[in-house]
Design goal:
20 helices; 11 strands; 539 residues; Amidase signature (AS) enzymes; globular; alpha/beta
Length: 539
């Protein structure tokens, strides 16, 4: 079978593991897959604004190289594993497949704006660790995706380059800060994408766009070459349209890196690439002990979201898992604690953006004047707000009252999780987001309401634990996410639980639905997200 017999619309809708099977069987080429995804991304990006840049030439060159390597692997010498050529079975599942990078991941010779005008024109001189890993495995990097400025936000409305739209409803947000990466996967622009999660910025957009997203254990993936927000909280992680794809991408980028002192020397299990089929996955849920934290059903949670989550919990119980209501008593302090620790670390990390070392310099006066003007014009309102919060918390006379106390509460939050896992719970189940995707502008005037979007995800970051968001149905026609939380280094177990849930809901009607307004993104007359925001503000 030739790849040319498959229309591009069919190719891009295959899950990544199915693309890998077709590629290895020579039913389709890496170039055909890459061209199909580029065509969709280029056509729909005006309506979605998921991408800040698409590297067509670089992606096609990488795809052609993958096809050459695949031909060598399929030759008699390659198939025999001789003459230094790997066999097809030695190729990673991401080999020859498209991947999107959030635009805070360094890629040598490419832009790296972190969604901020203060980094306009900056060209990364080196590859991030995860970029090196992806290139070495033969993945095809399509380009860089939109994001909240310096990863500060829960909606991708804080990007200096305009908001990103949710393909389920173009007038609504995809979540943030990794909204561009989430939309790229949900809209079939790429089967895999990279996000970062400081307080929920992978899991929350995964939930709001109906895909799978994992925040790994802190230290599982090297942060070398990633623009920093809050160094003790940031973690790189994968998006995929199903659990197997997210697991394969984690396998590709995880592992020890000597250039990052927080990167842990913990082996990455190869079983991530061998998750069970539906029958075995469903059976593996029997006997699992899961905790349901009552504190995660927060005030203001939408009734439809709570209903879908409780239905998912009932399905897990019907499949043989035991679910017990539990308590994480310090959860209510998570939001306040996070918004002391994260801004404090951000104020230190962002001090380097001064118009001298990175990006454009504003002004032609004295050094201090240039510095103030550069930062004043280069940073957006949300970044300035968090720098001010963090600088205040670290200032003389307030460090002990705020930052030090927040770190003590952070220890208590982690102790809550440790108590439950020490008691024998395999994982915790909870909502990912208390609401479905909200309209553009709905929370921009009230930062606290925006911060509450991450109430169910922040504690996991404070404790440094892994958290997985998987789709569990729709509320008012919009996706709802189920969050699975495990002890440190339990990503494999979380993916197995996620596969189990996928298996027991494989026949659900909502699994066959595509993003409802994706068809509008194909219409050149559809307004851009920025035009939608402007129109809403004018009303």
């Amino acid at each position: 079978m030739s790849g040319a017999t498959r229309p591009p619309e069919e190719l891009v809708r295959l899950p990544g593991h199915a693309m890998a099977t077709a590629l290895h069987a020579r039913e389709v080429s890496s170039r055909e897959l890459t061209e199909a995804h580029l065509a969709v991304a280029e056509r729909q990006n005006p309506a979605l604004n998921a991408w800040l840049t698409l590297d067509r030439d670089g992606a096609l060159a990488a795809a052609d190289e993958a096809d050459r390597r695949l031909a060598a692997a399929g030759s008699e010498a390659g198939a025999a594993g001789t003459a230094g050529a790997p066999g097809i079975g030695d190729l990673h599942p991401l080999f020859g497949l498209p991947v999107a990078l959030k635009d805070l991941v360094s890629m040598a010779g490419g832009q790296c704006t972190a969604g901020s005008r203060i980094l306009s024109g900056y060209v990364a001189p080196y590859d991030a660790h995860i970029t090196e890993r992806l290139r070495a495995l033969g993945a095809v990097i399509l380009g860089k995706t939109n994001m909240d400025e310096f990863a500060m936000g829960s909606s991708t409305e804080h990007s200096a380059f305009g908001p990103t739209a949710n393909p389920w409803a173009l007038g609504r947000v995809p979540g943030g800060s990794s909204g561009g990466s989430a939309t790229a996967v949900a809209a079939y622009h790429a089967p895999f994408s990279i996000g970062t999660d400081t307080g929920g910025s992978i899991r929350q957009p995964a939930a709001l766009t109906g895909i799978v997203g994992l925040k790994p254990t802190y230290g599982r993936v090297s942060r070398y070459g990633i623009v920093a927000f809050a160094s003790s909280l940031d973690q790189i992680g994968p998006f995929g349209r199903d659990v197997r794809d997210a697991a394969a991408l984690l396998h590709a980028v995880a592992g020890r890196d000597a250039r990052d002192s927080t990167s842990a020397p913990i082996p990455v299990p190869d079983e991530l690439l061998a998750l069970p089929d539906d029958e075995k996955a469903a059976g593996s849920l029997r006997g699992k002990r899961l905790g349901l934290p009552r504190e995660y059903f927060v005030a203001g949670m939408e009734p439809g979201v709570e209903a879908r989550v409780r239905e998912a919990v009932a399905a897990l119980e019907a499949a043989g898992a035991t679910v017990e209501e539990v308590s994480l008593p310090h959860t209510d302090y998570g939001l306040a604690t996070y918004y002391i620790v994260a801004p404090a670390e951000a104020s230190a990390n962002l001090a380097r953006y001064d118009g001298i070392r990175y990006g454009p310099r504003r002004g032609e006066g004295d050094t201090l004047g240039n510095y103030l003007r550069t930062r004043g014009e280069g940073f957006g309102a949300e970044v300035k707000r968090r720098i001010m919060l963090g600088t205040y918390a670290l200032s003389a006379g307030y460090y002990d009252a705020y930052y030090l106390k927040a770190q003590k509460v952070r220890t208590l939050i982690k102790a809550d999780f440790d108590t439950l896992f020490d008691a024998g719970f395999d994982a915790l189940v909870a909502p990912t987001s208390p609401t479905v995707a909200f309209p553009f502008g709905a929370r921009m005037a009230d930062p606290v309401s925006m911060y509450l979007s991450d109430a169910c995800t922040l504690p996991v970051n404070m404790a440094g634990l892994p958290g997985l968001s998987i789709p569990c149905g729709l509320s008012d026609g919009l996706p709802v996410g189920l969050q699975l939380i495990g002890p440190a280094w339990s990503e494999l177990e979380l993916f197995r639980l996620g596969r189990g849930y996928e298996a027991i809901t494989a026949d659900a009607d909502w699994r066959r639905l595509e993003p409802a307004e994706l068809v509008l993104a194909d219409d050149p007359a559809t307004p851009s997200p920025m035009e939608r925001v402007a129109a809403g503000a004018a009303r």
